[in-house]
Specification:
The complex is a heterodimer. Chain A contains eleven helices and no strands. Chain A is mainly α. In chain A, helix 1 packs antiparallel against helix 10, helix 2 runs parallel beside helix 4 and helix 3 packs antiparallel against helix 8. In chain B, strand 6, helix 5 and strand 7 form a beta-alpha-beta unit. The chains are: A mainly alpha, B alpha/beta.
Chain lengths: ~260, ~250
């Protein structure tokens, strides 16, 4: 079954959609969208480093994303304007990555594959990495779920319950870096943030609890991944962008439905 | 028995010495109110006690495994975060259906369990916060200006509930409040903070002090007097210590 590249692509897309759902919800609740972007953009720097050092792309991207995530969370709350800081770091990492890759003249590199993903080229080994990463992230988030939610609501509420909100934030930040490292193959650097945020945002109007929002986001993400794959195959469009486009359409539908529901009859 | 105690506590925030040489303690079952002008470090002291701030120097001692119920001054819930009252009560520790229901009944809001937190009125919100803080059977209940935004009857009702809670759970209560008449009736001890402990003692004792009249007189004159308020602090504190020792 795994011999079929379409089956592998579908499984890869599902893995990323499911792992991205709880993280995407936290990114939305904590207003960390830019943070996700910056971490994702650092991934292209990771690609350049891995190619330069001939190490696995996954390892290089993971290291770069973690480094970016830690840098940002260390610098935050130290008097820097956060959006400016993230803008500087995100695009610097992207630019340095692109410049770095251009030095590697020996190899012909299809940079598009890293910027927009190449889900149809997912090998069985990639699939194993994606699902292992997804399982690790889901395990971590599931384990810290209550603590993370409390810290997201109010840090002092977490402290008073004997929790350390900074440690919880670190769990979130590291999970984010991990999801980005495994998702680069599927949707690419430029669209990872979209896979985090759009399903979560689309799930919000239909959710009464944080848990419900996470499950609905996972469902919307999965529909986008599978439907996007199907559509890309039928219309011969690039897969990553097609997946994100479908997610965006679902978001628009959700927004319209919620507006209709709220409107006085 | 003291459940929280600070010794020569100094806290510096952004270059300002917000708390200096604060010695404070609270005993089991005691209701203590912190009063003081804005920026006097009341919230800072509470945040040190819950462990959210590490003091620059000095000591904080908490009873081993102390359970704290905390009602923050303001709790902003992001509109993107769906949260029913019932779900909120189970944070961070899951509670049984029955316990959660009972807590809301005691708080007088059993009908709100399924309501979204962002749809509650100010008074309902505070009651939910209090109900949640009590679910863990705290030994110390901390209220940071918990009645801000409530009207007079609303806050009176809130404090009646706090007293009721103390009677039932026997927990100590530490609160910051501006509702001074309520403070007077509900507290065992009043601590006046202005960067350091200005004075403390039983409400009647503090009330009869001329400083108190200067502090809490009616209208703006009283408010202004609060800022001009300087007197021999160490003496006041020792006196209060003697009194509470004698009371034991």
């Amino acid at each position: 079954m795994l011999d079929d590249f379409l089956v592998r692509a579908a499984l890869a897309g599902l893995g990323v959609a499911i792992a991205a759902a709880p993280l995407g919800c936290f990114v939305v609740w904590r207003r960390m969208a830019y943070f996700g972007d910056a971490t994702a953009h650092a991934a292209i720097l990771g690609v350049a480093i891995s190619l330069g050092l001939s190490i696995s792309i996954f390892a290089g991207v993971l290291v770069a994303s973690v480094a970016m995530a830690l840098t940002v969370s260390t610098l935050s709350g130290r008097g820097y304007a956060m959006d400016t800081l993230l803008g500087v770091l995100a695009h610097s990492a992207l630019a340095f990555g692109l410049v770095g890759v251009s030095f590697l003249s020996g190899i012909r590199i299809d940079l598009m594959a890293y910027l927009f993903g190449d889900i149809l080229a997912v090998r069985p080994f990639d699939l194993a990495v994606i699902w292992a990463g997804a399982a690790l992230v889901l395990g971590l988030i599931g384990w810290r779920w209550s603590a993370l939610l409390t810290a997201t609501l109010n840090p002092d509420l977490a402290y008073s319950a004997g929790l350390d909100p900074k440690r919880e934030e670190m769990v979130l930040v590291l999970s984010l870096a991990l999801v980005i490292a495994v998702a680069i193959k599927v949707v690419g650097v430029l669209l990872i943030a979209a896979m985090l945020i759009i399903p979560a945002a689309a799930a919000r109007p239909f959710s009464r609890t944080p848990e419900a929002m996470t499950f609905i986001a996972a469902a919307i993400g999965s529909i986008s991944a599978l439907g996007g794959l199907q559509a890309a195959y039928s219309f011969n469009t690039p897969t990553g962008p097609t997946i994100v486009s479908l997610a965006a359409i679902l978001f628009a539908l959700s927004a319209v439905m919620s507006a209709l529901r709220a409107a006085p009859r | 028995m003291r459940i929280v105690e600070t010794e020569s506590l100094n806290v510096r925030l952004g270059g300002n010495l917000v708390l200096r040489d604060v010695c404070f303690s609270i005993r089991r079952g005691e209701i203590v109110t912190l009063v003081g002008p804005n920026g006097s470090g009341k919230s800072t002291l509470l945040r040190v006690i819950i462990g959210a701030l590490v003091p620059t120097s000095g000591l904080v001692r908490r009873k081993e495994g102390l359970r704290i119920g905390y009602v923050p001054q303001r709790l902003h819930i992001d509109p993107t975060l769906p949260m029913t009252v019932k779900r909120f009560q189970g944070l961070p520790r899951k509670v049984g259906e029955k316990a959660a229901k009972e807590a809301l009944e005691v708080a007088g809001i059993p009908e709100l369990a399924e309501r979204q937190m962002t749809r509650l009125s100010g008074g309902q919100f505070q009651r939910v916060l209090l109900a949640r803080a009590l679910l863990d059977k705290p030994e110390l209940l901390i209220l940071d200006e918990a009645t801000q935004g409530l009207d007079q009857p609303g806050s009176a009702e809130f404090y009646r509930q706090v007293e009721d809670v103390r009677r039932r759970l026997g927990c100590a209560v530490l609160m910051v409040s501006h509702d001074l008449h309520v403070v007077m009736s509900a507290s065992d001890r009043v601590v006046c903070l202005n960067g350091h402990v200005c004075c403390e003692g039983e409400p009647e004792h503090v009330a009869s002090a001329p400083e108190y009249r200067a502090l809490f007189g009616e209208g703006t004159q009283g408010a202004l007097a609060l800022y001009r308020h300087h007197h021999s602090h160490s003496q006041g504190r020792n006196e209060a210590d003697d009194r509470s020792e004698a009371a034991e």
